[in-house]
Design brief:
Blueprint lengths: L1 E7 L4 H15 L3 E5 L12 E9 L2 E2 L1 H15 L3 E6 L15 H8 L3 E5 L2 E2 L6 H9 L5 E2 L3 H20 L1
Parallel strand pairs: 1-2, 1-3, 3-5, 5-6
Antiparallel strand pairs: 3-4, 7-8
Helix pairs in contact: 1-5
Length: 166
């Protein structure tokens, strides 16, 4: 079973989550392709899609939303799982879904949306971004929970394989 794994990432942390999801799906016997949303013209060659985005100012990044706009009807014709990356701290905040998720879930017919903690390294940020995180006293660090991420991916594989057997 071929699975497209794609995620919009601003500084690379969400891209790494997509790569780990792809690796976990491969470990479960699936055939994942991990590419950037801008490289996706069609999802027709895939049995399922895992689509994610970093969340900035409460919203998904434009490349992920543009993919939904480009391929919405094709996405809704196959199993889709969504993930967002962005909350930071211990415990990660904010802990609610981005406000545009309801529309994206409807457009894709997604089976699930998962919110994962992210990573913030001040040196990677632009001057305006550093000013904002300093003013808000946003903690720096890598808060991604790799066992949670790989466990979620394993659950996707299990669900796909059980539907394939039916």
């Amino acid at each position: 079973m071929r699975v497209l794994v794609t995620a919009a990432s601003k500084h690379g942390a969400t891209r790494k989550i997509a790569q780990v999801i792809g690796d976990a799906l491969r470990d479960q016997g699936l055939d994942p392709t991990v590419i950037e949303p801008e490289q996706v013209d069609t999802v027709d060659d895939y049995d399922a899609v895992v689509l994610g985005s970093a969340v900035y100012a409460g919203h998904w990044l434009k490349p992920a939303k543009q993919l939904v706009d480009r391929c919405g009807s094709a996405l809704s014709a196959r199993p889709v799982w969504l993930f967002s990356s962005g909350p930071i701290g211990d415990p990660p905040k904010p802990d609610e879904d981005p406000p545009d998720m309801a529309e994206i879930i409807t457009a894709t017919g997604a089976r699930e949306h998962r919110l994962f903690a992210g990573k913030l390294i001040r040196q990677q940020l632009s001057f305006p971004e550093r000013a904002i995180v300093s003013a808000l006293r946003v903690p720096e660090g890598d808060f991604r929970d790799w066992p949670e991420i790989t466990g979620w991916a394993a659950g996707i594989a299990t669900e796909m394989q059980s539907h394939a057997r039916q």
